[in-house]
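@channel sequence for tomorrow's demo:
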Amino acid sequence: MGFMDKAKDMAGQHDEKVDQGVEKGGDFVDDKTGGQHSEQVDKAQNFANDRADQFGSVEGEDDQA
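structure tokens (generated this afternoon):
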């Protein structure tokens, strides 16, 4: 099992932790910038969470909702 396979497996098993980390990182940026870029930070958080969900999905699983 290669590095990417392990990373995908971990992301799939710990989806909530990944989402929490993304949220915490975005909140940190908002705090440090005084909320000046909160709209962009929110977009980045949504993008990161979506990509993490795709990255951690099980191979062969239907990703369409």
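heads up for whoever presents: Residues 59-65 have pLDDT under 50 and may be disordered.
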